[in-house]
C-alpha cells in the first residue's frame, strides 16, 4: 500500500493558514496591540511641538512592537506548548524550525499592520507628514525592531516553562519598557536613567525608528543604535533557541 506524504511546502502553507486563523480568532489581543500605540500617539499630540513628530511617532511604534513581541507572541507560544500543540505538530513532515517561522510570519504581519495604522493616525490626527523614503525606511526599521522583542519573547519562553509565570514575566518586562520609554527616555528620572534608557532595547529601537522617519538626520548614533539592536536580537535569539523546550516536562 503506497502512502502519499504531502510536500513540506503544502504542510507549511496549511500551518501558516492555521496560525493566521488562530490570530484572527484571538483578535482581541491584536486589537489591544494596535490600540496602545494609537492611543499614545493621540495623547502625545501636545508634545510634538517640543520633542518633534519623529520622537512621538517612533515612541508609539516602539511601544506597539513591545506589545506584539511580548504580550502576543510569547504568551501564545507558552500556551500552545503547555497544551501539547507543538508536540503534535512535530510529527508532521515539516522541519521544527518551520513551525516557529510560521508563528513569526504572523507576528511580522501584525508589525506591518500596526506600523501602517500609526502612520495613518499620525498623518490625519497629528499632522505628521513624512517622505516616501521615510515611510519605507521606518517599515524596515519596525521589522528589525520587532525582531528584538520577538527574540526577547523567545528567550523568556525558553527560560521559563510555566505559562502563567511567562505571562506575569512578560507583563513585568512590558511595564519596565513603558517606564523606560515614556518616563526615563524623556529625562524625568535624571540624566543617568535617560542614558540607560537610550541604550536599552527600547531606546535603541526608538532611536533607529526616529532616524528612519527623518533619513536626512540619520547620524552615527543612529547607526550605532541599529548595530546594538542587531546585537540584542542575536543574543536573545541564541538564548531563546538554545533553552527552548517543545514541552513543559
Structure description:
- Residues 11-202 form the ABC-2 type transporter transmembrane domain.
- It holds the Pfam family ABC2_membrane.
- It is found in: Membrane.
- This protein has one domain (8-243).
- The chain has helices spanning 8-25, 27-43, 48-51, 53-82, 85-89, 96-124, 132-159, 163-183, 191-198, 201-213, 220-243.
- The model has no long low-confidence stretch (mean pLDDT 83).
- The longest helix has 30 residues, at 53-82.
- The chain is 79% helix and 0% strand.
- The chain has eleven helices and no strands.
Mean pLDDT over all positions: 83
Q: Give the ordered list of helices and strands.
A: HHHHHHHHHHH
Question: How much is the radius of gyration in Å?
Answer: 19 Å
Helices, by number, come to 11
Q: Fraction of residues in helices?
A: over 70%
Principal-axis shape equals globular
GO molecular function, one term: ABC-type transporter activity
Subcellular location: Membrane
Transmembrane segments: 30-48, 54-73, 94-123, 135-160, 172-190, 222-241
Organism: Pinibacter aurantiacus
Outline of the structure:
Helix 4 runs parallel beside helix 7 (132-159). With 249 residues, this protein is mostly helical. The protein has helices spanning 8-25, 27-43, 48-51, 53-82, 85-89, 96-124, 132-159, 163-183, 191-198, 201-213, 220-243.
Key features?
249 residues, mainly alpha, globular
What order do the helices and strands come in, and which of them pair?
Elements: H1 8-25, H2 27-43, H3 48-51, H4 53-82, H5 85-89, H6 96-124, H7 132-159, H8 163-183, H9 191-198, H10 201-213, H11 220-243
Helix pairs in contact: 1-6, 2-4, 2-6, 4-6, 4-7, 4-8, 4-10, 6-7, 7-10, 7-11, 10-11
